[in-house]
């Protein structure tokens, strides 16, 4: 007879007769399994080559950019509003259609030009009226090109693209990760309609080339949220709870440690399970990983076994614990029966 208590029938799970009909597959946590997982996780540190091959080019002017054009020794062209005006007041804004008007030069299609290309055009046209003009072009306001930042960032919104070469790491640093809500394993970069999912946690903490990814105008950067990503711990532990899953490298040791570990007085040394579900049980089997905590290598294996979001960690009860629970549930019933007998005997004695 089995006594009441939290217990997982592992014999049925691994029985050959029920393997085809079972909804789960039992897998022992062994060094071989750890090695296979580590090889699989190593792929997460690989960066798509097309992201690494992109090299930023010189800034190209766009609509609504504010330009400051200097013609040396000709203040009437450089600061038509007068020297008392600021540079911003004397800036020339590119029209929505990408054109710009400049005295003696006329309308110029400037959208898509580099600053050097625009400088050469203005210099060549001014040379008709000014002997050997010396021209310089600078951008005062970068308003045409942006990078969209969204998700679990402290400063979501838009980052302007300027003449500096902005890397992905710099953009993340400027936006500032919301450490409490961010899913660091799910950084999404969308470029030209193609979505790249990057494990920011692994890439930024390993010797990867993430620092060589440059962003460009039109890129969208999204940090996933971990609001619904948790690991559930239950059974014979000090404090059963749902633990937020914020990184991509939470180990079984870290999870058990965060809830105070298995109860030394009631937990079974060999019944530590990680239950990993699937989206469709009709076509796929869930996996139950078992760790024999009595094994000398158990601590090493647990420290290398990586968790996944929505995993359930279950620590079973020891045999003596299940027996004690059976007794504790039996005695209250027995006491009720004994009390009833004593009352009946007492009534009978009074009748005599």
TrEMBL record:
Keywords: Cell outer membrane, Ion transport, Lipoprotein, Membrane, Palmitate, Polysaccharide transport, Porin, Signal, Sugar transport, Transmembrane, Transmembrane beta strand, Transport. Residues 320-346 form the Outer-membrane lipoprotein Wza C-terminal domain. Residues 55-139 form the Polysaccharide export protein N-terminal domain. Residues 145-222, 230-315 form the SLBB domain. Belongs to the BexD/CtrA/VexA family. The lineage of its organism: Bacteria, Pseudomonadati, Pseudomonadota, Gammaproteobacteria, Pseudomonadales. It is a multi-pass membrane protein. This is Capsular polysaccharide biosynthesis protein. The keyword Lipoprotein applies. It holds the Pfam family SLBB_2. InterPro entries: Poly_export, Poly_export_N, SLBB_dom, Wza_C. The keyword Signal applies. It is found in: Cell outer membrane.
């Amino acid at each position: 007879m089995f006594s009441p208590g939290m217990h997982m029938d592992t014999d049925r799970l691994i029985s050959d007769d029920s393997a085809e009909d079972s909804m789960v597959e039992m897998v022992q946590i062994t060094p071989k399994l750890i090695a296979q997982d580590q090889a699989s996780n190593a792929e997460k540190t690989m960066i798509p080559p097309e992201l690494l091959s992109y090299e930023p080019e010189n800034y190209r002017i766009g609509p609504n950019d504010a330009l400051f054009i200097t013609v040396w020794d000709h203040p009437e062209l450089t600061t038509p509003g007068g020297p008392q005006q600021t540079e911003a007041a004397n800036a020339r804004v590119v029209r929505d259609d990408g054109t710009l008007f400049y005295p003696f030069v006329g309308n110029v299609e400037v959208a898509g030009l580099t600053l050097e290309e625009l400088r050469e055009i203005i210099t060549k046209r001014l040379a008709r009226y000014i002997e050997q003009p010396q021209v310089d072009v600078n951008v005062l306001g970068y308003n045409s090109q942006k990078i969209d930042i969204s998700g679990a960032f402290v400063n979501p919104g838009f980052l302007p693209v300027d003449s500096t070469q902005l890397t992905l790491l710099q953009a993340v640093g400027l936006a500032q990760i919301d450490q409490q809500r961010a899913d660091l394993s799910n950084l999404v970069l969308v470029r030209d309609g193609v979505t790249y999912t990057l494990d920011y946690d692994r890439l930024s903490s390993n010797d990867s080339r993430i620092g060589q990814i440059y962003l460009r105008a039109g890129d969208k950067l999204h940090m996933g949220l971990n609001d619904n990503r948790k690991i559930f711990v239950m059974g014979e532990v000090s404090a059963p709870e749902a633990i937020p899953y914020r990184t991509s490298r939470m180990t079984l040791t870290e999870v058990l440690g965060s809830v105070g570990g298995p109860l030394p007085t009631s937990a079974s040394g060999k019944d530590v399970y990680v239950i990993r579900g699937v989206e469709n049980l009709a076509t796929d089997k869930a996996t139950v990983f078992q760790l024999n905590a009595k094994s000398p290598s158990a601590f090493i294996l647990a420290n290398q076994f990586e968790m996944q979001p929505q995993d359930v960690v279950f620590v079973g009860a020891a045999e003596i614990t299940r027996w004690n629970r059976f007794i504790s549930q039996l005695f209250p019933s027995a006491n009720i029966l004994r009390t009833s007998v004593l009352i009946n005997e007492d009534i009978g004695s009074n009748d005599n």
